[in-house]
Amino acid sequence: MNFWMRLKSDRIAVLCMILLFSVVLLGIFAPLIAPHDPLEPNIKFKFADNSLEYPLGTDQLGRCVLSRLLYGIKTTVVLSLLTMGATLFIGTFLGIVAGFSRGKVDEAIMRLCDVLLSFPSEVMILAIVGMLGPGLTNVVIANIAAKWAWYTRMIRSLVMEYTDKNYIRFAKVAGCSSSHIMRKHLLPGVLGDVIVLATLDTGWVILTISSLSFLGLGVQAPTPEWGMMLSEAKNIMTTHPAQMLPPGIAIMVVVAAFNFLGDSIRDALDPKGDQTKAVVK
Amino acid sequence: MKRYILQRVLAIFPILIGISFFAFFLINSSPSDPAEVALRVNETVATPEAIATMRRELGLDKPFLLRYGTWLLDSLQGDFGNSYITKQPVLNEMNKAFPATLALASLSLFITMGVSMFFGIWCAVHEGSVGDKIVRGFIFVGTAMPSFWAGLLIMWLFAVKFDLFPTSGMDGFHSIILPAVTLSLTFISTYIRLIRNTMIQNRQENYVLYAKVRGLKEKTITRHIFKNSLQASLTALGMSIPKLIAGTVIVENIFAWPGIGRLCVTAIFNRDFPIIEAYIVMMAVLFVVCNLIMDIVCALLDPRIRQGE
Question: For domain B98-269, which CATH number applies: 1.10.3720.10, 3.40.50.720, 3.40.50.1820, 1.10.3540.10?
Answer without folding.
Answer: 1.10.3720.10
